[in-house]
Amino acid sequence: MKGSVAVLPPFLVLDQLLQSWLLEDIGRGDRTTQSLLSQNATIGQAKWVAKAPGIIAGLPVAARVFELLNPKVGFVAVKSEGAKCEPGEVVAEINGALDALLMGERVALNLAMRLSGIATLTNIYVEQIADLPAKFVDTRKTTPGLRILEKYATALGGAINHRMGLDDAVMIKDNHIVAAGGIGQAITRIRSQIPYPLTIEVETENLVQVQEALDHQADIIMLDNMPLEMMSEAVQLIRKQDSRVKIEASGNVTLETIHAVAETGIDYISSSAPITQSRWLDLSMRMG
């Protein structure tokens, strides 16, 4: 895969999120489990089994969910992060206090299924352009509260992470251009105020805007919703005038169109589809 290295944030960052999600599900207590079992008294074993083919993601996060409920729970990942699975394959094995296994089951599975679904669809997009230099990039269209994990999943699927938030880089979009009175005005004003390392990306919709972005030395030029013929012209224009500028294509990218977009010679193709359109990968926990 030619994407970002998928780096899971430290649990110092994640624990507060995981604890809040456990509290949401457990509430004032698990009426079923706590009525049946004494705390930590019964030891149980379980397996996670894949019910559909896909890319596995989120197992370290799932393991942490159980660990927060009981530090002695053992979670063994049978499949590696980013590995492919087939229906019927064991993905993970868990053992420990049965009450912790039952109380953590839903939150842990929900996270792993969601992230695995994103990694799976991301990988399908990445494979569509594997024979070309263009790289596939995610976006900020993420689920509030889950961005850091959803972008981890896209990286596992082979994508490049775009900016994590508004503070990572400057992206001048259509509404910014309107507010500033033009691309040139926007770039000039922003460049005078941002820290040195930040790059400036400009969203363009036609060749006139592309030229204006070039004239004001944008670092990255996004070709947004351009027809393929215009996109090819824009790529040639940019390459001829300033070879250092990176080119990104975005807007209505589908599995059917992504290869043709990559053939225009752009550097990056961004899409929210792996996050906004992916289906959860079906996993189940079986006690044994």
From TrEMBL:
Its EC number is 2.4.2.19. Substrate binds at residues 106, 139-141, 163, 173, 203, 224, 250-252, 271-273. Coiled coil: none annotated. It is an enzyme of class 2 (transferase). InterPro entries: Aldolase_TIM, NadC, NadC/ModD, Nicotinate_pribotase-like_C, Quinolinate_PRibosylTase_N_sf, Quinolinate_PRibosylTrfase_C, Quinolinate_PRibosylTrfase_N. Pfam families: QRPTase_C, QRPTase_N. Pathway: Cofactor biosynthesis; NAD(+) biosynthesis; nicotinate D-ribonucleotide from quinolinate: step 1/1. One of its GO terms (molecular function) is nicotinate-nucleotide diphosphorylase (carboxylating) activity. GO terms for biological process: NAD+ biosynthetic process; quinolinate catabolic process. It catalyses: nicotinate beta-D-ribonucleotide + CO2 + diphosphate = quinolinate + 5-phospho-alpha-D-ribose 1-diphosphate + 2 H(+). Keywords: Glycosyltransferase, Pyridine nucleotide biosynthesis, Transferase. GO terms for cellular component: cytoplasm. Residues 118-286 form the Quinolinate phosphoribosyl transferase C-terminal domain. The keyword Transferase applies. Hexamer formed by 3 homodimers. PANTHER family: NICOTINATE-NUCLEOTIDE PYROPHOSPHORYLASE [CARBOXYLATING]. Belongs to the NadC/ModD family. This is Probable nicotinate-nucleotide pyrophosphorylase [carboxylating]. It comes from Trichormus variabilis SAG 1403-4b. The gene is nadC.
